[in-house]
Structures are given as C-alpha cells and as structure tokens.
Amino acid sequence: MDTRCFANPFCDYKGSLLPAQSIQTVVPIVLASVDKVLKKVPVDISDCDGGLYDGPAGVAYMLYHVSECPLFSDQRDLYLKTAKHIIDLSAECADAEPDKNMRAAFLLGGAGIYAVAAMIYKSLGLADFVKPLSRFRSLWEVCAPIRFLECGSDELFVGRAGYLCAALVLKQKLGIEVSSGRVASRRLKFSDLTVQTQKSNSHLKESINF
C-alpha cells in the first residue's frame, strides 16, 4: 500500500529560541492562561453539554495535555483532578444525548469525551479508565452504516474519520491497542466505507455538474 503523506523536505530547526520564547517566559504565560480559562469553565452539569470542540470537555483535554508536560509537574495533580471533574460532568451529558449518531462524534460528541476521560483516568492511575474506554469501543456500531449521517458520515467532527482519529490517539496515549479482533476488522471496514462514500459523492457531483 502506498504511503499517503506529504514528505517534509526541511531539516529540523537547530537555531536558538527568541528571548520571548524562553521557558522562563512561556511557563508563566501558560499558567496564567490556564487559570483564566478555569475561572470561566462551567462546573455544573447543566452547562456541560458540547464536545471537545465546543464544550467544557475541551478544557479537560487542555488540562490533560498541560499535565503531561514536565514543565508543569508541580501542577500535574491539580490539573488532572480538575480535568476529571469536568470530563465526568461532560460524560454525563454525552450519556444523555438523544441522537445516538452524535455519540460517535470525536470533536462534537461522546466519542471524544469518552476517549479523553480514559486518558485522564489512566494518568491518574485509576483502573476505572476501562469504563469510558468500553463506552468508546461500543460506538463503532454507530459508524458501521455507510451513510449514518446526513451531514457527512466520513468527516472529522462527527463522522468516521473522527472516530478513527480518536482510536489512534488512544493507542498512542494509553500505549495499548484500543480495539482488537472483530473491532479491529471493523476499523479496516471503516476505511473501505470512507472510500465508497467518497466515490459515491464524486459520482453525485458529476451528475449535478453535467
């Protein structure tokens, strides 16, 4: 199979950072930015709807990433505990989502929330990380129909591409194969479905244009 990527012709940057980009300068800016965000993030379940892109769950994702950086080791425990509180509320909202198709959305729905919850729980050393992980795994059934969404079954925000992206992130961050056996074969099927959908869309555009 051909590798589908863009080759980077440039060498790694070997210069020095500008004075305004030093660690001593950047770290306080990041800490201040995080504090500013946390003062505005909702702490009640009634305000925790939305996904990683448009809801408080995105703040939990931010806290997870900051906590993974060694420069913020002193804030790690606090950030992860705060992230857990936010993602737990977001997961409750995702569980109550009436549109089951939206639960498979990575950036706008439950799939992204469950994936981030699993990563946060794992970083906290909680064995319960398998619970949101299991919720994520179960969503492949939603993505199985070739056209399960009218707005685009293969796109990143709510479609199969987003679900596959989340599966890849989980594999990278958790260090384990998120899905195996029958579910892994479904991932391959998703790739085939994506190709089929794009071919179908291409023919549709041709019929409209001509």
Automatic annotation (TrEMBL):
Biological process, per Gene Ontology: carbohydrate metabolic process; peptide modification
SUPFAM superfamilies (alphabetical): LanC-like
Signal peptide: none
Gene3D superfamilies the record matches: 1.50.10.10
Short name of any one Pfam family annotated for the protein: LANC_like
GO CC field: plasma membrane
Protein name according to UniProt: LanC-like protein 3
Natural source organism: Takifugu flavidus
